[in-house]
Structure formats: structure tokens, C-alpha cells
Amino acid sequence: MVKLQQCVFHPASAFGRKSSMPSYARILRAGGAALVFMLVSDTTAAAADAVKITAPWVRATVPGQSVAGAYMELTSNVPTALVAADSPVARKTEPHATTFDGGVMKMRAVERIELPANETVVLKPGGYHLMLVDIRRELKPGDRVPLTLIVQDRNGVRSTLQLDAEVRAVAAGTLSHPK
Ligand SMILES: [Cu+2]
Known about the structure:
By secondary structure, the chain is α+β, with helices and mostly antiparallel strands. Helix content is 24%, strand content 44%. The protein has a domain at 50-168: PCu(A)C copper chaperone (Immunoglobulin-like), CATH 2.60.40.1890.
């Protein structure tokens, strides 16, 4: 493929057969673009396949509430980290950690949530979670919330995982009693 691309952009090719060159170059470029896309998808698929996501859900909101937590279980068969997330229902979606300071629950944004190989990492109320910030509409029980997760392997290769999380109503009180 590299050879083909060199052919397309090589000055000698352009001088050789001027009249037939444009369409020939287009075909080669199209072929080149397709191969590049294939390689990118293969890499993405391989890394994304390493991560399994189960039991995703999002806490229901009440009118006026601007944030909600998204929870799930993640298991990767290679060392990976959850580094970013996105959802169309919120302005931004951040990986968060929960800490307890003198009995007061505090959340903070974290750059990454490590996913050690073959270990199930549970995002749950009172622990790590994804925070949907500035929610654009009320999230009612039974709604589906699309989520995009970006994971990064040890080589820095990022891949994208798409999922749908069901909205569930859970009493806020459970937040202060982490298991
Ligand atoms: Cu949070």
C-alpha cells in the first residue's frame, strides 16, 4: 500500500501519462483510504474487544437536577484504563472517584480509572463512576442513555466502546452507605 501511495504522489507518475492520471490517481487514493480505514478499525476492534461491559445503568433524575451517575462493571483481559467518556444527554461526561472525608461524601474528576487485566472493576454509587454533567433532559426510569467510553491500553492506543445504559430510580440514601 505504501508503494501505491508513493506512486500517486510521485512526480514521475504525474509526468508519465498526464491524460489518464487523474482517474488512475483517484482509484489509487480511494484504495489507499480504504486500507488505512481498515487498519484503524482492526486496531480499534482488537483493543475494544479486550474490554467487556456488563450491567450498565444511569441513575434517574428529578426535574432540575443537572448531574447523574452512570455505573457498570468493566473487565479487560489486558491492562487498560478508562480515560474518557461522552454522552449526548449531557454537556460532558467525566470519570469520577468518590472519597469520604469525615463522613462527608465528595466526588472528584479523575484522569483515568485503571482496568487491571482480568479484574472486574465496578463503577457504583459511592465508588468510581461516570458523572453526566449538565444533563440536557430529565432521565426517567426505563430511558436508554447512549454512552461512549474511551479506553487506552498500555501502548497508548485508544479505542471506543459504545453502549446503552438503562435509567433506574435508586434512592439517593444508598449513596452514603457504600458497600
Ligand atoms: Cu460524580
